[in-house]
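Task: fold both queries, return tokens.
Query 1:
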Amino acid sequence: MDFESNNWVWEGMYYYPRLFGGIMLTAALLGLSTSYFGGISVPTLLYPFPYLSIFYKKKHEKKRVRVYMDGCFDLMHYGHANALRQAKALGDELVVGVVSDEEIIATKGPPVLCMEERLALVSGLKWVDEVISSAPYAITEDFMNRLFNEYKIDYIIHGDDPCLLPDGTDAYALAKKAGRYKQIKRTEGVSSTDIVGRILSASKSGDSPQDCSNSTSVGEADDIKNKFGAEKQAKGGQISHFLPTSRRIVQFSNGKGPAPNSRVVYIDGAFDLFHAGHVEILRSARQHGDFLLVGIYPDQTVSELGGHQYPLMNLYERSLGVLACRYVDEVIIGAPWEVTQDMITTFNISLVVHGTVSESNSSTEGGQDPYAVPKSMGIFQVIESPKDITTSSVAQRIIANHEIYVKRNTKKAASEKKYYAERKYVSGD
């Protein structure tokens, strides 16, 4: 037996000399000395004693670090995803708390997405291991102890931007005092406030609010498009401040291609304002093969298909949103509208799928069918969309509550402006 395998014995003798000596003496008195058995080594002789396994475990077992991060995660975007990616990097297992609708209403006002939708978005992220629903907005001492004892959390994580309670106190003060707090770098260029602002800047008023389970009707979608289009042409739209880098794309990517014999499934679309409907259709698509390839339409194509008001998120923002989804293996950034024979051969596509719910009827746009080639090859399939949510229906909820969100955004925008004015460089990310 080599030195490495016997090393736990010497560690035992060093750290527990009395216990180890007592065991050896007992063995000698019982006539079980190593000389009696000749070739039998000490580790073989002592291993039958169950309590000696503490030496072996000490060397070979390492406690997994569990970290916790919470949030409202309303209007999920790549900034949320990047925050959770950073949090996961600080430990081995990431537990995420999703704040309840009631607490959001009490502290911020009505959320755009209901709890069910926000849970689907968070659970669908590739870095999330466990989700706690209806987490409190403020981490009280009772909840913090529950995190430490019940969920075995080692550290509580938050971004470098301040999170203040209505009374002005730090929401993470208790975690900091306990020495169990770690900070990550906030992702610049996007926020839920910013996205709401992009929608509000394109409309002055809205129609009736939409329920979480209902999608926008064709007439309502046209109304939204007309409002967005007129305002965007008049004001020039709300510009994204996102600065894409190759490193961010790499951080979100799986970094692996399909195996030679993998069944590659392809699905394409705008995937604008990434929502629960997107998560569920991607989950369904992934179940049809071994590798899910997603085509993200360029901004110009999205505008042509959906109207001048779209996309709300630019190509790189939309690509990161899709890449963050656990069911996605790879994306084509700026995919062509038509699925060609060359595409199918290049990416070794086995099946092309399309959902029953989409922002526009792209299969008949301009009289040309973008899926004509895969249909002729017998590799096209329509799959049932698990949810009927669309980007338009989400935007409609904000427009319907225009005054509430204008007031909330005015306050939040001032807070974010102050943050950026006073912020300093934070390493990491």
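Query 1 returned. Query 2:
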Amino acid sequence: MPAQDDEEQGQVFFDESDIIHEVDVDEEDLPDADDEDDIENIEDPDDSLHIFTGHTGELYAVACSPTDPVLVATGGGDDKGFLWKIGHADWASELQGHTDSVSTLAFSSDGQLLASGCFDGLVKVWDTFGNFKRTLEGPGGGIEWIRWHPKGHLILAGSGDCTAWMWNVDNGNCLNVFSGHDAIVTCGDFTPDGKTICTGSEDATLRIWNPRSGESIHVVRGHPYHTEGLTCLSISSDSTLAITGSKDGSVHIVNITTGKVVSSCSSQTGSTDGNPESIECVLFAPNFPWAVFGGMDQNLTIWDLQNSSPRFICNHEEGVTCLAWFGASKFLATGCCDGRICIWNCLSGECIETFKGHEHAIQSLAVSSNLEFLVSVSMDSTARVFEIRDFC
């Protein structure tokens, strides 16, 4: 048979002179099929220095104390909240009494109290040892978010019943109910000066309120604002601007005094069916003239407020669900649907670190008061602590 035919048949012949060196191979050294499967299934390394595993369901919320650098609160779908301490594996206090998912948590600005909001429509208040103080009642729907007044023991909460409520925590009295939205109040906050309230809703509107009178000062809606429900909101440190993100894939910046839209940006990409990708998180930079936002388009956008244009668009492998600044530094963390946390230098737009360890989507991030720890909570039912002191 001609040599060409042999090659076509896949047959190769060697001459003894072609052999350079013979090596004996023990069959036990050869990988079998099971070994190859193990190689393919090697998990990502775990970069966390502490894991809290007290929960038995998905985690939704995390908060770090503004005064105690190791005190952390977490809450989730197992109807439980916990207070625990970084580096103190033997200390944890369960926040007992909720009858539904603990959806949101927040420490008071003085660090003396913790509030937990639940889908049962109740807000509960605790001291920093986990001792129950009081229940704040009233909303007819689940609590979506809670915020403390920046200068006192007042709490603002958004509800699934289309209202927001404000209480005096020290005596439990309701001070005002903010009515006017036509759907779930999905986001909101006091302005940093404490003089105004902003709330966003599934009804695609932003409302600006007088906290004393309960009067709606401005209603922002229609062109050129969002066309679908709001998902997130942040207020600038000088209390002049609100930035909002929406399911419609757009971000708008509003002048709080006038109620006018001053800047807008849309998601960079659409989904496979042509619909926009939701914006999930927005923040103003604490020490730079920037805003940042991320979403299901797998991008973090660093937005230049002075030029109304993007400084950088930072790509991720999967959607961005949450953000956290490292104090007033140039560093920012993004939590993602793939369970990874990316650390960005926002001056250069570079990803300088990726933290691995979670198995499912990150739901929320918080930074310790001493800027040494980043705490994340995930749908994998764990909270993880990562060291960030090198970035601050």
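Both queries returned. Flag for query 2: Residues 272 and 367 are 35 Å apart (CA to CA).
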